Amino acid sequence: MPKSAADSATPPELPAFVSAPEGGSGDLPKARLDVLKEQKPRRHVISVLVKNVSGLLAQVANLFAARGYNIESLTVAETEDDRYSRMTIAVRGEEVIIASLKKGLTKFVNVIKVLDFTGTDHVERDLALVKINTPHGSRQEIFQLVEVFEGTVVDIGLKDIMVEIIGPEKKIDAFLNIMKPFGIKEMARTGRLAMARGPKMEGHSDEYV
Predict the structure, then answer these.
(1) Rounded distance, CA 195 to CA 47, Å?
(2) pTM to 2 decimal places
(3) Which pLDDT score is estimated for 29?
């Protein structure tokens, strides 16, 4: 029996990015590479509520490394309940890859909730300790600038001061740029901390989202 046109028609192909290579390894299909080239990398801050168990931090870091993504910052500490910790991960990448990473996070047994703060009403803070040179005659000017940025002088030496400054990433970056002409001797930052407004991450139910 001769085949009809419908029988011989080639089934439509699914978008190449629907089935990503497992574990982030292997060559990406050309169609998927074209899709990724059209996407602009976007910064994401991801909050992950986890159980306090050893080895989980390394697993999370390996998940990102396997896909060739560098974590901009990662903070982790216990929550109000010492059975749980909250990881805050800042990473930049294309939407489809970030979605794959978030899906990978939910597959870990000890991960309870995953929330991407992108597009979510939230509070975000960073903390920096900055040791700044104080050239002759400039100390008072530096003190005034620290006050403008709502920083706190936490240590004073003969030739330098140490400042603590807290706020959004852009505020701290702006402060560092203002201080560069004086000379920044040393600097340490915590990385991003974030929390959604309202009930987004409330509760410790052992259910994935």
Answers:
(1) 8
(2) 0.67
(3) 57
**Beta strands in 120-206, from DSSP E residues, in sequence order:** 122-133, 152-156, 160-167, 184-189, 193-196
Q: Which fold has domain 123-194?
A: Alpha-Beta Plaits (3.30.70)
Q: Which fold has domain 28-120?
A: Alpha-Beta Plaits (3.30.70)
Give Cα 22 distance to the centre of its chain.
Answer: 22
Q: Within the chain, which residue ranges are assigned CATH 3.30.70.260?
A: 28-120
- Percentage, residues of the chain above pLDDT 90: 40
Checking if the pLDDT of 166 tops 70, the result is yes
In the chain, which segments carry CATH 3.30.70.1150?
Answer: 123-194
Structure-token pair, residue 108: 């870990």
Give tens-digit pLDDT for 104-114. Answer: 999 998 999 99
Q: How far apart are CA 170 and CA 200, in angstroms?
A: 24
Of 120, 119, 127, 171, residue with least CA distance to 149: 171
Looking at 6-83, which runs of residues are DSSP E strands?
42-51, 71-78
Please give the DSSP secondary-structure letter assigned to residue 205.
Answer: -
Contact 76, 86 (CB under 8 A): yes
Question: DSSP secondary-structure letter at 206?
Answer: S
Looking up tokens 């931090």 gives 57
